[in-house]
Design brief:
single chain; alpha/beta; 38 strands
């Protein structure tokens, strides 16, 4: 790509933008839409996209990060920063897409486009593994397949690339045309068409038709007939078509699949002869994705023998960063499956999201197949580490070690993974966050295991992306200017402490709320700087609250006077929050309490009321809408009375999770999001629009075959009259699995099948009736996930989702995933 095409002046012409260019010689190397993910500030162009949040609101953050090039639609920003280049367009997202489209047309290379409902990212990554020896490949980072992700991916094409592999995902009609223009694939691969992301389409036919628009002009189209039954064969795209199927005649007709020691042997008919391959995975989804890759290789002209050799070498793809507790009070981020510049930048951003330790360390292997010579590559990596404020680098591999002089931060280097492991006892790790990032051949999983605390086999997995998505879901319902208070009390509803708060701080919520001061203190010690409201301030904690700048909820005159008397005479405007009781009758000032409250507030300058709020009793229930309206009216009246006397206007807030959904006219100045962040809202039908955040899983300890009449567990409560088979699993009431789940009330998922408990729930384990199923020791057991939800478990024992989630014991290890 010539420098002219990347020049800011040429970009102005491409976008037909109105421009102010105090730095007209700037060359753009990076495009970005997130002010928090800056890699190369001098060479970056920030697009202020109006999506779930208006990108113009973050121009100041981007400027502070060193960005001096902006594409905007609001002209008011043109004169705000006199040393910055501004390009004004009508639609910023459209401009981003147009620029990427121009870049794609300027580069003549073969491109594989991938779409479908499931499997897009895995197929993309596996095709990369399979084809990397023959091509210099540019591919979508992680799962960048959206209206924003696709242009950011395609912009990275350079002249040295000979193959692009890009995935495209859409959620509603009319979105694919723009992505098709950007990607312009020459080869199209259709993956599984299932129910995922179906909400934006009238039916499956419309969904399929929209997705196939990506392949309108492809030379080659790879597909399974089972996924296109709604269309006629003449309506399918592609000058050449290549089909695969396990159920009907096709170019690749799979006739036999046999599991062999964790792998799958597959036999098929191709060009009138029998061929075979070995897929090194056992689960159904991986087998299907492997067959799609097999079909793609054959369609591209590879021989069956060569395809078999390559497929057998496929390795596991992890698209998620894993955050877990490590040795010596460290936090470990495990990203040990891949290493390239794009994914390294993403992982470093996640590392910087962690504030619980002041020191940040990267363990990095050699990076291969970038198309750059090593000196250029490691110079770029050195600049990236400096930009991301990394404290320490441990480089592993001969290539990175050869360029040790390029790295100006604290660093050490080792020729191999084994050499590092041998020296590990003498390397000091303590109170730091460690990112482990390595190419597959370096087997960095060995390093992660040595740095990670031993994990109890019962694990609560927390999907941080899903939590962020749920936050954006509620933000999309808010009027402009309405603030967000996120409830992180009770160990963030059982999901974690600083791990959740760090993400919420990164997502720029306005307030956090905890139940007790010690929760807030823990967050402060973990580097959380957001304002924090303490809902149950105790006099014994006042000193610590003041020291750590925690803001008390004041709900009666007694606690108000106690806190006021504690504060030193010189204190001025210490922030407090007033709670009003409008019908919950739990905590809060009532109308009769206001005269005394006003007398105290008017008599002091030590305090400043930051917010005034109330708690709705039944915001999720249409049956009680009349009472909810009464509460809101009462709150408005009390707020007016207070503000008339104090002569200023604190933030007012009343809505909780379900209130946001059902009472849009009562958003006021701020809303409080609680369990909705974790995917549950009783005001939504089946939690529509929310993602499952937590998965509780365990493993099978032992399998037993019982004779007719034998019993299971304490007091012989579990009876198998006809005999059968049971599995003992590693979860009990000490882990938070309630004893009421015993004797068939509770159910768990093993190999996709729901099986009931049998006998009583024990302290550390329980038993499941697996009669008729092929289950073995070590098999994974799902207690709850998206299929069997927390709502389902709550219904089984007649409780609420809150109790299920918050009761999960602290001894159950939390593992956090971030894509």
């Amino acid at each position: 790509m010539s420098e002219e095409i990347n020049s800011i002046q040429h970009i102005v012409q491409i976008l037909k933008a109105k421009a102010i260019l105090p730095q007209p010689e700037t060359v753009i190397r990076k495009l970005l839409t997130d002010s928090r993910t800056v890699i190369d500030p001098e060479g970056s162009l920030f697009f202020a996209v109006k999506a779930q949040r208006d990108g113009h609101e973050f121009i100041s953050n981007a400027y502070e990060s060193g960005i001096r090039n902006f594409v905007i639609s609001d002209s008011g920003y043109m004169q705000k920063y006199m040393d910055a280049n501004f390009l004004q367009v009508n639609d910023v997202l459209q401009a981003l897409q147009e620029l990427a489209t121009y870049k794609r047309k300027a580069n003549d290379l073969k491109v594989i486009g991938i779409t479908g409902s499931n499997g897009k990212t895995i197929v993309k990554e596996w095709l990369y593994q399979l084809l990397a020896s023959d091509y210099n490949i540019i591919r979508s980072p992680k799962s960048f397949n959206s209206q924003i992700g696709v242009p950011l991916s395609v912009w990275q094409i350079e002249p040295e690339h000979t193959l692009g592999i890009f995935e495209a995902g859409i959620s509603t009609k009319g979105e694919m045309e723009a992505l098709a223009a950007i990607i312009t694939p020459t080869i199209g691969v259709l993956t599984n068409i299932g129910e995922a992301h179906a909400e934006g389409f009238e039916n499956k036919t419309e969904k399929l038709t929209e997705k196939l628009k990506l392949f309108k002009d492809v030379e080659l189209f790879v597909y399974a007939p089972e996924y296109v039954t709604e269309l006629n064969a003449t309506d399918l795209p592609g000058k050449t078509k290549f089909s695969w199927s396990t159920t009907q005649p096709a170019d690749l007709h799979v006739s036999f699949i046999e599991p062999i020691e964790g792998k799958n042997y597959i036999r098929a008919t191709y060009q009138d002869r029998e061929i075979e391959c070995l897929i090194p995975f056992s689960d159904k989804a991986s087998v299907e994705n492997g067959i799609i890759c097999w079909a793609t290789l054959l369609a591209m002209g590879y021989t069956p023998e060569e395809a078999d050799l390559r497929l057998e070498k496929l390795t596991q793809v992890s698209m998620r960063l894993e955050l877990i507790n490590g040795i010596e009070n460290c936090s470990i981020i495990d990203d040990s499956y891949s290493a390239d510049i794009s994914s390294l930048a993403i992982a470093l951003d996640f590392l910087n999201l962690q504030n619980q330790h002041p020191k940040k360390t990267l363990i990095l292997s050699d990076i291969y197949e970038t198309g750059k010579n090593n000196e250029v590559l490691y110079t770029e990596i050195s600049a990236l580490l400096e930009q991301k404020n990394l404290n320490r680098l441990i480089g592993i591999g001969p290539n990175i070690s050869a360029f040790a002089n390029l790295f100006k931060i604290e660093s050490s280097f080792y020729e191999s993974t084994q050499a590092f492991i041998e020296q590990l006892p003498g390397i000091h790790f303590a109170n730091e966050t460690i990112l482990v990032k390595g190419a597959r051949r370096f087997e960095f999983g060995r390093i992660s295991k040595l740095l990670t605390q031993k994990i109890h086999d019962t694990v609560l997995e927390i999907n941080l992306n899903a939590l962020a998505s749920n936050l954006q879901f509620y933000r999309s319902k808010l009027k402009s200017g309405v603030k967000v208070m996120a409830m992180v009390k009770a160990f963030s509803y059982g999901s974690g402490s600083f791990e959740i708060a760090n993400l919420l701080q990164y997502q720029k919520v306005d307030y956090l709320a905890v139940a007790y001061a010690d929760e807030g203190i823990a967050l402060r010690k973990a580097g959380i700087t957001l304002p924090i409201m303490v809902m149950s301030p105790e006099p014994s904690a006042f000193e610590a609250m003041v020291k750590h700048k925690l803001e008390p909820e004041i709900y009666n005159t007694s606690i108000l006077k106690s806190f006021l008397n504690f504060l030193p005479e010189f204190e001025v405007d210490f922030p407090i929050h007033l709670k009003l009781d409008t019908g919950m009758h739990r905590l809060g000032f009532e109308k009769t309490d206001l005269p005394e409250l006003m007398d105290v507030l008017k008599s002091t300058t030590k305090l400043k009321v930051i917010s005034i709020f109330t708690h709705l009793v039944a915001s999720d229930s249409a049956q009680h809408d009349g009472f909810t309206r009464h509460q809101l009216d009462e709150f408005s009246s009390l707020y007016t009375t207070i503000t008339n006397l104090i002569n200023y206007y604190p933030l007012k807030h009343a809505l909780n999770t379900s209130g946001i959904t059902r009472w849009p006219d009562a958003q006021l100045d701020m809303v409080r999001i609680g369990i909705g962040l974790y995917g549950f809202d009783s005001a939504l039908d089946h939690n529509a629009g929310l993602q499952t955040v937590a998965i509780l899983k365990t493993t099978v300890t032992q399998v037993k075959v019982l004779k007719p009449g034998e019993t299971v567990g304490y007091s012989r409560k579990g009876v198998l009259p006809n005999g059968g088979k049971i599995a003992t699993v590693k979860i009990g009431y000490a882990d938070g699995y309630n004893r009421n789940f015993g004797n068939g009330v509770g159910k768990m998922l093993i190999n996709g099948k729901l099986v009931p408990t049998i006998g009583s729930i024990c302290m550390d384990m329980c038993m499941l009736d697996i009669t008729g199923l092929n289950v073995k020791t070590g098999d994974e057991v799902i207690v709850f996930n998206h299929q069997q939800t927390i709502v389902d478990l709550a219904g089984q024992i007649n409780t609420i989702p809150y109790e299920i989630l918050t009761n999960i014991s602290q001894r159950v290890k939390r593992v956090y995933f971030y894509e």
